[in-house]
Amino acid sequence: MVSTNRTHVTEFALRGFAGGPILHMILFVVLLLVFIFILAGNTFMIVIIIKDYRLHLPMYIFLVSLSFTETFINCMVVPKMLSIFIARNALISRVGCFAQCFAFYILTPSCFLFLGLMSIDRYAAVCHPLRYPTIMTNKACLCSVCACFIISFMCIFYPLITVPTLPICNHIVDHFFCEGEAIMKLFCVDTSILRLLSVISSVFILLGSLIITIISYIFIVSSVLKICSVTGRSKTFSTCISHLTMVSIVFGLSIFNQMRPHRNYFIELEKALIVGNIMVAPLLNPFVYTLRNQKVKDSIRDAIRSHKIF
Question: Global pTM?
Answer without folding.
Answer: 0.88
